């Protein structure tokens, strides 16, 4: 085959791969924002000015258009997605880049606390989005047959129950449907909007002129305050553009937005606006009014339900990924993580998170009972997360990327002008339901703050009480202990001090192994560490070796491979058999003299009791394993 032919084949394969990633991005990245037409425009039209319907409709349509352009196209695609962390995105990716620039011995820096709260807000969004998406889709049954209204809530709960029950089987099988389903969905959105424009004329397209948005905000400011709180619904899920960047890459996501998602959304919103403008009033549901009553409504309801299940699945998978990153960054206690695919390491299932999300979503449907009621609770979490992303991006841009301060401040002001307008408008819904996602986010934030503070307290506790390893080795006398054949690997968070299990073994059994490795696995603020993970191998007296290895928050390092590499560097490469692993776990006892408030101490104690040992996140095949349980109790000395 000629070089030109091979080059042509490679180019064709590259285009096919990009096209495949584009379709995949439609399902995972744009699932949430793609189902917003079900409820966003209808919610905004609840605040139409009956005395000036035309100006209101054009103003609302203009606000939808410019919100999509400024938030998604300019902010996220144009700037924020360029602040990736080695190809990974999301608020924790920004946080990981900034941690080296904000170190504090007294506590967690304010900037990092803000980003932690932003991540907590996204978890709150993970509860609201599946509930409102499924409810809004199933409500189409009411327009098909009003007598089915009483089945909307039970059917929505049943769909959510089935969705969360299926998570343990993994997203691999249903994941192949994500892209194609959303491709059909976006084409349908665009086709329905275009049909309405042909029916009622193109006058509504004048809304692309920002004059109509400004005019509406100034002349109808009483309604505009509430309308802005509804307009934000059209950009919910924008954070997913950045958070899921690692799965698809910036180029496929950008192409999918410009070629499919954006045209479909704009045509549908303009189609709904044309329908309302022609009718002179807002229908009960502008989206389902796009099709005739009867079987077309039922068909659209079925397609919308499938699309919302896809969007909900994307949020659930994103929540799993978010919690996993928090665990790797030591912001949450280790939980059981099940890998559901051998081919794709990112496909995971976290049972405890799945149970909490599922229960919270079903409870949300029971409490709010309709998409219109739930819309009052929707928006605060998203807009709060958008503000956090703007702050984090500003710091990454000025600290990590070393960009100019003037342009960075100008961008921050631009982003803030939109973010705070949305956030301020949604604050009006605080007591109507907006408190709900904030309460969820507050609980998640408390979990992270408590675990981080508890870990710092334990670290200080051990530093005060553990003997330096060098002093321990100096006191060792060969005649005072028995040498056993094999290799002992002591997993410890600080290989400069004597591991608890090492001191316990010598004190209780008077024996040591032929070779002893003091191994510390140090997490890095990157998704993955390429190449050799070992950063230190230091031989010590009496057959001891200090080994430090690094890993990223998306890695699952092989401890056996690390030990073999350390042995190869220092000895002949052979690891004396058998190999025994030693690790320790803490049990925290709350006391009046503890370093945290009592309620945080009790929460931290509960976190440790339910945490999975950190070593279970590594790959290893020990011949023997010994775990030491250490009780930690703060008491006044003397």
Task: Tell me the layout of helices and strands.
Layout: H1 3-28, H2 31-34, H3 40-45, H4 53-79, H5 91-98, H6 110-138, H7 140-144, H8 152-165, H9 172-200, H10 210-219, H11 221-231, H12 239-243, H13 245-248, H14 250-279, H15 295-328, E1 338-339, E2 348-349, H16 351-368, H17 371-375, H18 380-400, H19 405-427, H20 430-465, H21 469-474, E3 482-491, H22 500-509, E4 511-523, E5 534-540, E6 544-551, H23 559-570, E7 579-589, H24 598-610, E8 624-633
Parallel strand pairs: 3-4, 3-7, 4-6, 7-8
Antiparallel strand pairs: 1-2, 5-6
Helix pairs in contact: 1-9, 1-14, 4-10, 4-14, 5-6, 5-18, 6-8, 6-15, 6-16, 6-18, 6-20, 8-16, 9-14, 9-15, 10-11, 11-19, 18-19, 20-24
Describe the model.
It is a single chain. The chain is an alpha/beta fold and 638 residues long. The protein folds into 2 domains: 15-326 and 352-443, Amino acid/polyamine transporter I (Up-down Bundle); 467-593 and 610-633, no CATH class. Helices cover 61% and strands 10% of the residues. Strands 5-6-4-3-7-8 form a 6-stranded mixed beta sheet, sandwiched between helices. α22 links the parallel β3 (482-491) and β4 (511-523). The model is unreliable at 3-13 (pLDDT under 50).
